[in-house]
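Task: sequence in, structure out. Protein: Fibronectin type-III domain-containing protein.
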Amino acid sequence: MKRKVLWLALSVFLISLVLSSCFLLRESLTLDSNPQGVQILVDSQTIVTPDTLNLQYGSHVLQVLSTYLTTSNYGGSPNTEYVFSSWSDGSTSNPRTITLKADQSYTANMLIYYKFLTGSNISVTPISSPVSQNEFYLYNSQIQITAPKVQGYQFSYWIVNGQAVTGNPLTQIITLSTQATAVYEQIVPPSLPSNPYPADGSTGTSTNVALSWYTKSNGASVTYSLYFGTSQNPSLYFSDLTSPEYTISNLNYSTTYYWYIIASNGYFSTKGPLWSFTTQSEPIPSAPTGLYYTSVTSNSVSLSWSPSQYASGYNVYRSTNETNFSKISSTSNTYYTDTNLSPSMTYYYEITAYNSSGESGYSNPITV
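Result:
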């Protein structure tokens, strides 16, 4: 009887020992990530990779958490985000349940997002990848940043992670956390137009004149409007000039012209002073050539000649003794008929050309 009781007690002890060993059996679980430093929730415990846990035999739940880190001096804090992509065994489930039957290891492959920090008024447009969240952008993706127009200021350059970079808009490839700041320069009006050519009040200026002037742009692009004419309140002659010069041809002789410039940089305009110049006098015409008679009657002679440059008219001279010539008429034509002549009388003729500047020498004489 005592043997039976002893045997029964021993059996119960052995069964308890076996059952207890089943519950106390533990296995090794190694968790890593690429890159490392990622938070993973194992059941209710949070670990940071890489780490190795001793867990009970059986089922466990793994969940990779999005992890925020500060990995550089730019982009604010935190400035780097790791987002789960897949497990080393090909699974993309997150969270996932595993059955731990032996020592096992898993690596979480992560996508890396970097923060691109700018001012609140800067436009950021993803080109090749959408934003993850909170201004974090996928590694090796592209974004375009655009500095807005600011009244009274002109965009100059960017400071990107401490380096000066030009271009607006500017395309950036995300390879690290980044901080970008737009630098502006205050726009001031262009300086007063000065140093005109021809000089103000000058005379004897060519009728083909290359106007020029000087304006300091003060850092902004400047265009010019030219006001020009014979009135002291000249009208707009040409606008949107991009250089401080303009050529005008075929002006009138002995004429005073007035002009001024308005310089504009798109924000401010500066009106210059009124300038003037007077063109040269018209050259005295050359002497007519080729004088001949086209017909002769008993009491008239018809004359013709070649025109003279700059001539506004012609004077006809006649003599009966080849020395004492008298002006008998003026004409704007290059021909003339002398009438009421005496028959059988010899006449001598010469022609001169004239304009406002004076009279030319005599043409070749002819005898009729």
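The mean pLDDT is 91.
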